[in-house]
Amino acid sequence: MIPEVANHFFSLAINGIEEMARHSGYHVLIHLTHEDYEREVAITQYLTGGRVDGILMSVASETQEFAHLQQLYARKPALVFFDRVCDAVATAKVTTNDYKSGHLATEHLIEAGCGHIAHMSVSGNLSIGRMRLQGYQAALAAHSLAFDDTLVLDGEADDEQNTQLIMELLRRRPEVDGIFAAAERLAISSYQACKNMGRSILGEVKIIGFSNLGVASLLDPALTTITQPAYEIGKEAAKILLRAIEKKKAILPSQSLRLKSELFQRKSTAC
Questions:
Q1: 211 pLDDT exceeds 90?
Q2: Beta strands 224-227 and 206-210: pairing type?
Q3: Nearest to 168 by CA among 196, 137, 148, 207
Q4: Quick one: CA dihedral 237, 104, 222, 210, positive or negative?
Q5: Whether the model pTM is above 0.90
Q6: Which residues contact 226 (CB under 8 A, 6 or more apart)?
Q7: Is 102 left (phi over 0), alpha (psi -120 to 50) or beta?
């Protein structure tokens, strides 16, 4: 179960999942929630009664209540979360260090000369959103910059809405000179917003984003990214699940893994 396929992260994660499943003689069924809570609930209800051996899941951004996931786990304990996890369910989770990555991204913008940094957040309902925001706040504090919650915007599932949100922020706060986009689509919307408003990404606004886009280096200017090991995340999540299925053993929170993301500096944050 994944929120979307347009995000290159999930495409790579699926490749890792599929490779492990194929080698073990399993088929992968993909269910898309499209970031919608009601759709996620409907799919979990279907899977609760369906004939599947195990479930790998990344939570939708709209999800605020987790009773359906607890019910799913009670009926289908072969469940592993990856990337967007549910802390209310005591199973294994495969993630990256989102707090450290959020801190690293923000500090990079500060070192590039930014003093008024906006944060485009993924859903605050999810642990990845909270941890990346906390990393952003900690980096500001470490450099004696005040946290301003009016510079934090929650992204939407719709790209055009995100572009409009960023444009409104840049009109309201023209002093913004850096944008930390905590999701791939938010980085692209930040580029579009700057283009629409005639704001130079090199001269006026620097942008860094979480992204696994292979074309990040081809954007104009090339996008500085925090890149997650998406393929490895999918592969490791599948390993944990398949091992539990084959050995008929419970999946424990102690089996959780946290992999390392990398910062790739490009022209969008050049001094």
A1: no
A2: parallel
A3: 196
A4: positive
A5: yes
A6: 101, 104, 105, 208, 209, 210, 211, 261, 262, 263
A7: alpha
